[in-house]
Amino acid sequence: MLQSKFKSLTPRNDVLSFVVLAVLLLVLLPLLFDIFRLNLIGKYLTFAFVAIGLVLSWGLGGILSLGQGIFFGIGGYAMAMFLKLEASTPENTAIQSTPGIPDFMDWNQLTALPWFWEPFHSFGFTLVAIIVLPAIFAYIIGAAMFKRRVGGVYFAIITQAIAAILTILIIGQQGYTGGVNGITDLRTLLGWDIRTDSAKYILYFVNAILLLAVLVAAQYIRKSKLGRLLVAMRDSEDRVRFSGYDVDNYKIFIFCIAGIFSSIGGAMFTLQVGFMSPSLIGIVPSIEMVIFAAVGGNLSIFGAVYGALIVNWAKTILSESYPEVWLFAMGALFIAVVLAFPKGLAGLYETYLQPKVDKLLDKKLKKDKAE
Amino acid sequence: MFADYTWAELGSIFAMQGFSGLILFAVLLLMALGLAIIFGQMGVINMAHGEFMILGAYITYLTSNLFADFLPSLFDIYFFIAMIFAFIGTFLLGMLVEWSLIRHLYKRPLDTLLATWGLSLILQQLYRTVFGPREVGVSLPDWMMGSYALTDTIEIPINGIIVMVITFVITVGVFLFLQKSRKGKQARAVVQNRAMAGAVGINTAKVDRFTFALGCGIAGIAGATFTMIGSTGPTSGQLYIVDTFLVVVFGGAASLLGTIASAFSIAQAQSIMEFFLSGSMAKVLTLLAVIVILMLRPQGLFSLKVRK
Hints:
- By secondary structure, chain A is mainly alpha-helical.
- Chain A is 75% helix and 1% strand.
């Protein structure tokens, strides 16, 4: 019984995709690239968390959020606030007029730590906040919208507006948030220097393993009854509602999950890159996150990872050498994905490669049986 | 926060802020009018709407240079000719975009969002390559500059008055066009019931293309008007896109009257708060209020009662 349940969760192709990805992330990439490039790859992978969340909510559930940067920012800022407080010991900040508070607060004539910064002295609280805060926030947004049957296009525009509001707020409240520069100059995590090469290696692996764990969770959701209901709701919401399911709560739930995944990605971003700023929250990054999922294929959680990797990698390469070409390429990519490959990379794989892989696997199975 | 001012001063503040709110209202309305047709009526999420406006602004910039160099005697009236050019230019680009992109996506509204966002990136980079990354401004003829002193403490800028007059004329024109003209009636018929409109002999594909291009053309006029009150850069359009969408959604997507009412309330709220709070807080509070109201009343201020 248990075994059969496990089997239904793990179709052969998904297991294969998972193993290939795990080998790529944990063995091949660390062997092929030096720590500078590997750290960049780790940065790209933090966006894959968001893209996986979008596959669940947008691809399966049909809920397109243009504000996933909000949640990426919540996780990122929570981690950054903890690290900043740790970096701002009274000894380190002795030259300030108020020692012991982050430097940007001192520059903005603040004399005491604001109350909402206080809990971030505790690492335990920070970890809980990274999971719980985005869930609460997503619940409020989701409950307000889905209970009133606001969906589709309107949901997309309103989430986008919320991302815009959050960015304006962070930039405007410089003394409390670090303003447009964000929170920078982060040094240690519980006394462990995160800027050294060895720390970057460890963080890369922590990030990759977390990503694989999130993939397993996403696969579980996808194959569970919830996943099937999401697809049914996307295709015909009223039929599901009339069958007696509470459609709104399922939608809220999946939106919260997507938010939590994004938040984890944001926290890992702060740890690996060493800063967090409003430029990762606003309208433009939020839409870029959607394109990662779209390029990978908005129905494939594995595609989302490759989408995030490839688009970001292309962005780095192109904007390093031909900055003016980058926006043309990105724009063309958006249009091409929508018009020519609506299923993204995953769709291409399924059409061209998968039949061959299947044949190979079938042959091998037969051979094994014959022996 | 009121205690520091006398009553007379407060009166002047409200009058001046109210007037700058009126200018903001005119700007928001002009921006939203095109989108109200494209998004509100047709249901196409045009994220490149801001870039169409900027195209109108750049066309105005080119026209002003053209007149300054070759026809200085007619410089006083170049602006109105530039507006016509801006309309024609963006109208044609709108037709091209509809033909090449939008018409394949009418059934997939969320995908139009991604595709038009891609288009907006391409246009932005195009502007940057052609016009350079720096912002450009146009020089206005003398009679459009300066301000008109109503009382000792209340001054009204003349370009603001012109913006409002243009907005008024365009709004009334669009309204009459959609309500009375043959083309406008066809456009509304197609939006309300495509199959039926096709059955009575309207070429729906052609009407779609025309309606979309009309919305873009109005965006072009909005862009031309912008040059009077601000400078134009490659990414200026992106700054307005969220505001514009909120105006249309807040007003009730299918109603032109709603668009007018929502542009008015958003603009007044923002400009009056702006005087007492910082600009960013005023904007945050205004947008938040809009979102909260939308959560309570998802259909917007005005909604058409139609059978779905």
